[in-house]
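--- STAGE predict ---
source: upstream dedup step, 1 unique chain passed
mode: sequence only
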Amino acid sequence: MHCIIQGVKIIDPTSPYHLSVKSIRIHNGVIAEIADVINNSDAQVYDYTGNSVSPGWMDMMAAFGDPGHEYKETITTGVAAAAAGGFTAVGLMPNTEPALHSKSEIAYVVNKSKSSIVAIHPYGAVTHNREGKELTEIYDMHHAGAVAFTDADVALRDAGIMLRSLQYVKPFNGVIINIPNDHKIVGNANVNEGVMSVQLGMYGIPDVLEELMVIRDIKLAEYADSHVHLGVISSAKSLPHIREAKKRGIKVTAGVAAYQLFFDESMLFDYDTRLKVNPPLRSKEDVAALIDGLADGAIDVICSYHLHHENDAKDVEFEYAAFGMESLEASFGAACKAIDGKLTITEIVEKMAINPRNILQLSIPTIKENNKADLTIFNENTAWDFNESDIRSRSHNTAFIGKSLKGKPLAIVNNNQLKQI
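--- STAGE serialize ---
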C-alpha cells in the first residue's frame, strides 16, 4: 500500500505533530513522511481535509463468538463491526465456548486474526470455563499471546481466586480485569435499584454491590502490589474509592462503557430489552458522575463493552432477556454526544487509544515518521443518526438504532491496509 492522507489535524499527545494540520504518506504499512504538502505521483491520495487523525483506537472490552458461538458473532463479523466503529485493535474477552482458558484457545484466536486490519488481543479466562472455581494456566496463556486475564461478564466473586490471580500475574506485570458487579447476590434482578425499578415492578441491582467489589479489588491489588483494571463501572459511589486508591499509588485503573454515558435508567420505561445490560443503566446523577470521573482521570478508558446476542435472546419478556448490548459501531459517536465538550478531543483519544494500550503494555502507535501506520481518521463534530444499516455485527441487539450521535469515524489504517467507513 502506498497512499497519502491529505490535510488532517493530528490528535496525538505522544506525537511531535500534535494539533498540527499535516499530510501523511504511508508506504508498505509505515509512515514514510509527514509534511504540510506531499506530492508523490506513485501514491493514492485520500483527501480528508477538515478532519482529524489519531493513533488507532483500541476497544478494551469486546466479545466475539468464535469459537463456539459463531451464530452470535464470528471473528470476521466482529472485526467488521470494530472497523466500522473506528477501532484498529480490540481486547477480546474470553466468553466463548470453550472459554479462552488455555494456551490452545489463545493461539487459535491469535493465528486466526493475524492478517486482519483490526488487531485482536485475546484475554485469557481467570478460571476454568469462567466458573469461578479453578484457576487457569495463566502463565502459559501469557506466553501464547494473552494480554490480560478476566472472566469477562462473570464477576470474580471469590476473594481468594482474585488474590491468587493478582499474585500470579505480578511477575510479568500483567493485569487482571474484573467487572465489579455480582448481581446474582440479589437473585433475579434486572435493572438498577431505584425509582425506575419500583415503577417497572422489577427487582433491582443495588449500586452497593459494585461499590463493595470495587473496595475489595482495590484492597487486594494493594496487598498483592499488582494491577487490577475495573473493566466497566457504572456507579457514582465507586469513584471516590478509585480516586483515593490512585492518590495512594495503588495499581488500579477503570473503564466505562460508552452506552453507560449515553443511556440512563429512565429510558427503560417501555421495557426495551436491548437496554438490559449489566452493570445496569444507572441514574442520571450516576451518568453525570461518570463523565466527571473521565474528566478528572478517575476513569481511564472508554470502551464499547460489546456483547452480542441473537434475536431469540432479546425478543422475550424483560426478566428473561440476556444482559448485554451490541455497541462497537456507535461507541465513539455515543461517547462524544454524551460528553458534549466536557472533555477535549485529545482527552477522548487518550481514553480510547492511548490509555488502553498503556494498561495492557502494548506499544503506542505514535504518529511520526518510520513508525507503523496504525491510525483512525474521524470528525469529532459530525452529527449523524445511527441506523440499522450501520450495523456490521452479526447481532443487532443495540438500542442505538434511530439515535442521534455526534462524532464519526471515517477510515482506519492498520496492517498495511486502509478501510474507509
